[in-house]
Amino acid sequence: MAQISETRSLISFAQVSRGRGKAIYWSLLITVLIVFTLVFIGPLYWMVTGALKSSPELAQTPPTLWPSDPQPANYSDAWERLALAKLLFNTVYYALGALAFQLVLDTAAAYALSKLRPRFGNIVLGAMLATLMIPAMVLIIPQYVTVIDMPILDISLIDSPFAIWLPAVANAFNIFLLKRFFDSIPEDLMSAATMDGAGSMRILWSIILPISRPILGVVSIFAVTAVWKDFLWPALVMPSPETRTISVGIYAFSGGTPQNVVVAAAVIAAIPTIIFFLIFQRSIMSGLTAGGLKE
Amino acid sequence: MAIATVPGTGIDVGSQAPQPPADPRRARRNRRIKDNLTGYGFLAGAVICFAFFSWYPMIRGVVMSFQRTRRGETTWVGWDNYDRIINDPSFWIAWKNTLYFTVLALILGYAVPFFLAVLLNEFRHAKGYLRVLVYLPVMLPPASALFLFKYLAYDPSDAGLFNAMLKAVGLPTSQWMQSADMTMPAMVLASTWMNMGGAILIYLAALQNIPGELYEAAELDGAGIWRRITNVTIPQTRLILSLMAMLQVVATMQLFIEPLILANGAGTQDSATSVVYLIYQHGFFQNDLNGAAALGVIMLVALIGFSAVYARLNAKQD
Predict the structure, then answer these.
(1) How many CB pairs under 8 A join A and B?
(2) Closest-CA residue in chain A for B158?
(3) Could you report the per-residue pLDDT of A102-144, keeping only the tens digit for each?
(4) ipTM topping 0.90
(5) What is d(CA A50, CA A71) in angstroms, rounded to the nearest whole number?
(6) Has residue A278 been placed in a domain?
(7) Does residue A158 sit within a domain?
(8) The CATH homologous superfamily of the domain defined by B91-272
(9) Given CB atoms, is B56 within the 8 Å cutoff of chain A?
């Protein structure tokens, strides 16, 4: 069996592979599987079926496990009343734009800091990393004031997607992750290319980027989920009904909308993230531990 | 802070007068200048974004907190904003609530994921499934998950999921968000469910790096399971445990969306008002961006102070 080659953990393999140990192991595993499924999937089931119930059924005591008279109309109601198609489109648009800006600008910056190393590069890196110490919510007011009247440029970014895309680039964690990965790429690989007369752009494009696919994947996933999950910032800078993100739109409508319709909208907002997660779960899981925690 | 060295100031290359000295030296210098310029070119985009959306707002936040803007006119007002915000009747309530949330979240949200990770690390089956499960809620948009809790779980009548479950096992039901006493525990429960997965996966990665020989040796010395956890597992993951505690405190102190959605902001008898919610209130409903900025600075000082003291204490222990 392949498991033998793994290092042992708290309890040795021998102990759980026969007799009483084996019985305890299996009963514990089955209990954990059932409890975890109930705790982590149960609420999602409750949400999907709750949105299918009629308003009187939702207020019924005790609650029904399965809607007695399923109302799929709640979902179509939510779709139309909240203009979810538009909200979903906005959110995807902001997420993909933020992804593109971060990939291009953060990768370029990390490459400069790791390989080109211009003078004062370390000071710039230090100033970037210092922002990791500042909790995001603390800066929300001055950031908002900056966005409504950009210094030097004298323009307002309110309701402009740039208000989400550009602040997303100022992500020191991304730059740190990318730079650390680039640092591990041997210089020899590049010096050979330099001999052949390849410029910095060429080296980045045809040597560094192809090797860096795993870390680029991690950064991309973080970029997309961050925009999708964010609430306060898009609520402030995208205030118009036409530019809202899906989370903000649902919140804005929650006041005057029946509960089952709000929950249906919440389910629709969650579906893309769940699909995204199931597709990319491997990279997401490995990415989580990539932040210098594993070494 | 390193903010003083804002963007692009490093480009003093242009000040070097072009001179025609000996050839190889000039060539080398030209090359260096060119390399530096290429480097700055690659850095420029990110540096501009940092300058506009991180470095400048940091300074602006502090400056704003000593100013007052009324009808387009900005004047310096000294500590007036701080004075006003500290005398806001909700100021101390917000701090008390936020600290209470942080402590409750530490009790529930800190130890629990670690022990779940220790438990999950022992299983040699269904590993992938269990990991996907615990991380699933982390992927949900918080607004979605919180409406689930608000409408379907924390319903104060017996139609809600939690009250139905409590009733089924014969326990007294709760008013949840309608009860000032239950508001915080209910918010901690929702928040822990939403966020625990990340911590579990990070702990799992740390646990996998513990050399098996250490457990082997402990077992040979007759250490039981509990002794092995306290003498091997915890010391071996101490660094990550202390880092996660700090990150968690800083994250939970920024409590905002839970009160906003679950408690409509302030909650029953102000039981949910958090510091960030107060910032939001002042900034966007009381037309007091300057007071909000002052509260932001107070929070920043508190959190940086906490991190510094915490790091210091940790360093001493080593």
Answers:
(1) 323
(2) A61
(3) 999 999 999 999 988 898 999 999 999 999 888 888 899 999 9
(4) no
(5) 10
(6) yes
(7) yes
(8) MetI-like (1.10.3720.10)
(9) yes
